[in-house]
């Protein structure tokens, strides 16, 4: 049995709001080009609190969705969120470990995985496991970020160090906050065909206030701020250096600041040969 690592960002109400802000702010960027035909069977693995699920359903209202998460609390929040927005949606909810999915082989036409692989100690194993439930010729969509793609103005070594604290903590827990750059080799190594990976960059400055607030402040900086106690406990930074780094990150969201981050979106096909 293989199990995911602990979710490094936690399950607080603050994190639920952050995930919602992220999904809503980046919906057009991340979900553009993803729509499923009426009647198709779609599996979303690691649905969390349903922040991405709602956008999937908005783009494909006639598809049949199955949403899976390992956390019962997150799954309950997802059901509440999605049902409130789409009371007539075709969706079923399952608490399960993605490495031991309770579905027959070739159950789904499409699989959607967003911000999940970064939290797994064995992402290639996970992708191989997903091939089992994906029909031959079915598609897999994967979206992941890469904290190494972050740059900003004004530049700050302290801000970069604070970001690196989150990267190190996630690595210590068994995850990988830099996984976006690895999607192509991971997917090909797991046996997928026709793998295409494309960057989806977020750039925010004063002319894009929605991105400044929704992404720079409420998504990215909020995520880094949330690991303060763990970073200090691990001795990764001193309290004064951490506070300076966070203050410098907030400067990138002011009138003279800019912020850049790159997500990676992959599309791949299950060729239908034997799964190892």
Give a quick account of the main beta sheet: strands, pairing sense, barrel closure. 8 strands, mixed
Give the overall form: globular
Strand content: 15-25%
Count helical runs. 9
Low-confidence stretches: 1-5
Question: Total number of β-strand segments?
Answer: 8
Please provide the ordered H/E string of secondary-structure elements: HEHEHEEHEEHHEHHHE
The radius of gyration is: 19 Å
Report the end-to-end length measured between terminal Cα atoms.
15 Å
Mean pLDDT: 91
Structural class: alpha/beta
Helix content: 40-55%
Present the secondary structure layout.
Layout: H1 13-31, E1 41-45, H2 51-59, E2 64-69, H3 72-85, E3 91-95, E4 108-114, H4 123-133, E5 134-145, E6 151-153, H5 157-172, H6 183-189, E7 193-204, H7 209-225, H8 228-233, H9 239-251, E8 258-269
Parallel strand pairs: 1-2, 1-4, 2-3, 4-5
Antiparallel strand pairs: 5-8, 6-8, 7-8
Helix pairs in contact: 1-2, 1-7, 5-9
